[in-house]
Amino acid sequence: MYIGCHLTIAGGYKKAAELALSVGANVFQFFSRNPRGSSSKELDIHDVSEMKKILKDNEFGPLLAHAPYILNLASYKENTYGLGKRILKEDYEKMNKISIPYFTFHPGNHVGKGSEYGVTRIADALNEIITGNETTILLLETMSGKGTEVGHTFEEIRGIMDRINHDELVGVCLDTCHVYSAGLDIVNDLDGVLEKFDDIIGMEKLKAIHLNDSMMEFDSRKDRHAKIGEGTIGLEAIKNIINHPSLKDLPFYLETPNELDGYKKEIETLKGIRE
Ligand code: FE
Ligand code: FE
Ligand code: ZN
């Protein structure tokens, strides 16, 4: 199985791959730049190729980059919208340059303008960013629906995708904590949720899973990740998720509140309950 966690690339790409190995991971996620700021470091191609060697030698699965949280591609404010597009485009180019297969981002917040406005605004931005010559697939992350978050229903995700010119370069990253908070019952009706996903979006669009437990109750519309087995989703449901025929071959990335040793334990636990 492909299982890993979020790791820092502050020490470089090679270092991140070594960290992954040290926790027993064979995939990992990293921020495409400082998650809250907007400064971007120059690429060290040598460092990247050192990382690639480690990934190849250890049969890693696809790496996943995550865009900074500050982006809001649904914003009606031109400066916020412009900055979001500029950052996502810059990082998308960078991820393509180093052949990272997947790049996920939070679709955006419509801040009162309504879901349809947000959906269209996000799609317009993506159409400016994606030229069609890329290989990295941009992933829309499923959101919990806190505030005016766009992307907490499969219909909104579909709505964005429907408006994309190069839709072959757009997929979905499903976050287990977020969908549960958004009112999709992956604990009691995983099959039903996945059928719904398939009907509305299409299972072939699902490329990555953010594997998180949740501190919040079902349908809370709140986004608080919990350690695996310590939240409202629970270990039994997590076990069903990682072994589900439609999901088991996808890469799983932990974003649980852990340091390295905590991730190591969770990865061990998950490998232990993998069928
Ligand atoms: Fe995220
Ligand atoms: Fe996530
Ligand atoms: Zn979250």
Low-confidence stretches: none
Structural class: alpha/beta
The distinct ligands, each listed once, are:
fe (iii) ion, zinc ion
Contiguous helical run count:
9
| End-to-end gap | 10 Å
Q: Fraction of residues in helices?
A: 25-40%
> Shape from CA axes?
globular
Give the neighbour order of strands across the main sheet: 1-2-3-4-6-8-9-12
Order of helices and strands: EHEHEHEEHEEHEHHEEEHEH
The total count of strands amounts to 12
Largest sheet report: 8 strands, parallel, barrel
**What is the radius of gyration?**
18 Å
Mean pLDDT: 96
Instruction: Tell me the fraction of residues in β-strands, as a range.
Output: 15-25%
Give a short overview.
With 275 residues, the protein is α/β, with parallel strands linked by helices. The chain has 9 helices and 12 strands. The chain is globular, with a radius of gyration of 18 Å.
Mind sketching the topology for me?
Blueprint lengths: L2 E4 L6 H10 L4 E5 L13 H13 L6 E3 L11 H20 L4 E4 L2 E2 L5 H15 L7 E5 L7 E2 L3 H9 L7 E6 H6 L8 H11 L5 E6 L1 E2 L10 E2 L7 H10 L8 E3 L5 H14 L2
Parallel strand pairs: 1-2, 1-12, 2-3, 3-4, 4-6, 6-8, 8-9, 9-12
Antiparallel strand pairs: 5-7, 10-11
Helix pairs in contact: 1-2, 3-4, 4-5
Bound molecules: fe (iii) ion (2 copies) and zinc ion (ZN).
The site of one fe (iii) ion (FE) has 3 residues, from loops.
Model description:
The mean pLDDT is 96. The protein is α/β, with parallel strands linked by helices. The chain is globular, with a radius of gyration of 18 Å. The strands form three sheets. An eight-stranded parallel barrel has the order 1-2-3-4-6-8-9-12. It has helices at 13-22, 45-57, 78-97, 115-129, 154-162, 176-181, 190-200, 234-243, 260-273; strands spanning 3-6, 27-31, 64-66, 102-105, 108-109, 137-141, 149-150, 170-175, 206-211, 213-214, 225-226, 252-254. Helix 3 (78-97) packs across helix 4 and helix 4 crosses helix 5. It is built from nine helices and twelve strands. One fe (iii) ion binds next to loops.
